[in-house]
Amino acid sequence: MNFIPHFKATILLLCFLSCTSSVFASDKNINVVVTIKPIEALVLAIAKDTVNIQRLLPDYASLHDYHFRPSDIRKLHNANLIFRIDEDMESFLTPLFKTLKKTDIISLADNHEIQLHSFKATDEQHTDHHHGSHHHHHNKDLHIWMSPHNGIVMAKAISQELAKKNPLYADFYAKNLNTLTQEIEQFTEDFSRKSKTFHKKPYIVFHDAWFYFSQSFHLNKLATISLHADIQAGAKTIHDTRQIIAESHASCLFSQPNFRPKTVNILIEGLTIKTAKIDALASHLKTTPSLYLDLLNDTAQQVIQCLGTGVERLRIN
Q1: Are 232 and 212 in contact (CB under 8 A)?
Q2: Which residues on adjacent β-strands are paired with residue 52?
């Protein structure tokens, strides 16, 4: 019996397996850096555990005044791929990005399928009272992930970029993209139906970080009052803000997680208005592959509790 062909075949098989396992091992060492948690949510939904994902902005930190740390520098210089919203959105990182030579930096807001809205257009449609700064790109609102449509577009772009870096998992990423797209579309359909019972009720908001969500479901915003969450409001500011709230006859006031509850209570004391918190950065949510859907569902539930009867529940799995 001739053992030589079997021996050669065995050697070839071992070499193939060795090379294949080496490819899988190296693919898992791809480092993906994201600037904010909503981007992390989309990357995680697509990539699962096939890449190493690191986020720069910690939970409850503010993009307005965040200062990068030495650990952020190391993350960026070790990255194979970086996802951000836009150079203006994460302007605190501009000095670091300029030092990177070969790393691919993907600005998701630059995608031609993203629906971008300007503050000027918003001001023409609403009686807004802006007293603070916003993230803008030529006066564009950059909280793009709060739109379900934009979420799908961002996920598609992320899937394509990951496939370039990690072609072995291209089909896996495409499958996860398809699943996520169906889930987002189902959420949009369900909440569109649910919100028809209260979408005309007027509301006001502090720092309109969720304009895209509101517009997606035709909610009735009366005004945006921009107060700095980290600065104690003075007596005149409190008085003027209370007057705006009282005269608006709004049903709900939406604030952010980092707004002082005491300040919110003072602003609405004696007024017939409910309050809720919209956490556009998903700071209070667990980082899991379902995080993006969790963010949409959490936002929807806050809206339902404040503008609806408060007893409805909405959950898309």
Answers
A1: no
A2: 31
Report how far residue 258's alpha carbon sits from residue 61's, in angstroms, rounded to the nearest whole number.
9
Is residue 55 within 8 A of residue 283, CB to CB? The reply is no
Predicted TM-score (pTM) of the model is 0.84
Q: Look up the CATH number of the domain holding residue 92.
A: 3.40.50.1980
Nearest to 132 by CA among 119, 145, 146: 119
Interior/surface letters 158-190, b for 16+ CB within 10 angstroms, e for the rest: bbebbbebbeebeebbeebbeebbebbeebbee
Residues 151, 97 within the same domain: yes
The structure tokens listed for 265 are 């209570």
Q: Token digits for 146? A: 């709060």
Residues 125-147: pLDDT tens digits?
A: 333 344 333 444 457 899 999 99
Domain that holds residue 70: 27-116+144-188
Identify the CA nearest to 128 among candidates 138, 136, 120: 120
Domain boundary among 157, 188, 219: 188
Residue 111: phi and psi, rounded to 5, are -65, 130
User: Cα–Cα distance between 127 and 136 in angstroms, integer?
Assistant: 19
Give the tens place of pLDDT for each residue, 272-302. Answer: 999 999 999 999 999 999 999 999 999 999 9
Question: Which sign, positive or negative, has the C-alpha torsion 8, 11, 17, 18?
Answer: negative
